[in-house]
Design brief:
about 70 residues; mainly alpha; 3 helices; about 55% helix
Length: about 70
């Protein structure tokens, strides 16, 4: 999924500047895993933006068993 579409930009615009990098990372990781598990990258950008606003942050390096 491109991170240049209208829905992505609308969701990103709801975030303060300092959280936008976190949002972009979450979008990329989520999309990668939906492609891995379901064959296509579906992302609900507004939901991911809300998770970032709610405090979601990466806490650790990915575990080797992630399946990528």
């Amino acid at each position: 999924m491109p991170t240049t579409g209208v829905k992505f930009e609308e969701a990103e615009a709801t975030l303060p500047e300092d959280l936008r990098g976190t949002f972009r990372r979450l979008v990329r990781d989520y999309e990668d895993l939906t492609v891995l598990h379901f064959g296509r990258g579906y992302v609900a950008y507004k939901v991911l933006a809300d998770l970032v606003l709610a405090g979601w942050r990466p806490a650790a390096k990915p575990h080797s068993g992630l399946g990528r």
